[in-house]
Amino acid sequence: RPPEHYGWIVEVNPDHPEESKKLISLGRFAHEGATVVQGKDGRVIVYMGDDSRDEHFYKFVSSKAGSLDEGTLYAADLANGQWLPLTLKNPKLAGRFKDHTELMVRVREAAKILGATPIDRPEDCEVDPVTSAIYVACTNNTGRPHGHILKIEEQGGDFLSEKFASSVFLKGGDVKGLSCPDNMAFDRKGNLWVVTDMPIEDDKESYKDFGNNSLFYIPMSGPLLGVVHRMLVAPMDAELTGPWFAPDGETLFLSVQHPGETSNSANPKDLTSHWPDG
Which pTM was predicted? Predict the structure, then answer.
């Protein structure tokens, strides 16, 4: 298949998988995820990061309540606190793309034409259930190996707003903290949980003091606000992904990806990890 076949968000109805559909209006790029919230008028908002170096952070606002089929995709301009609409009504884009579908296929190009802010591999994003602020895990970049967590606050706390304020909530690289934030989840009390994705083989010198990738807990209120606590260490040569709490908040689910990734595949006895058996 051509490359344009890939890079989309797909909506799946588990009860009726035959109804699955590719959501063209959410744009084509390296989606790490899609965080969905509802606006005051019932329209649907989706926040998404493009998991590549110097790519962008996006917001989709649906045209109709309860539907993701049509709407407007925006790219974030952090310098000016502005969501930039990616539409052919914008004169900067009108002559560059033959129709809306081509614009959605070439979203990265369109975002750069409008001056969207390059970001350090924006991966997962989550919405604070208490304050409605959006937190974005920016994993790393060339020259910035440890990444950071970006905080975006929509004007008036309105997800439909076209203006926002942004700041760095947590800077990676402190050995008492974490490096390379990747996926996140909020618990029922509004505290933040973060897993990391330090490269297994690249630039080992930058990560040698941080140990294995891990799960971290960050209180979002009280005297320990913003203090990073390591809660769980991943197996050797692995990363933890997809943290998700059960509805009662008592159980946290995690995926363990590629334990023993650097093992010598030519020798099954030469393994860097035996997880989960030791």
Answer: 0.95
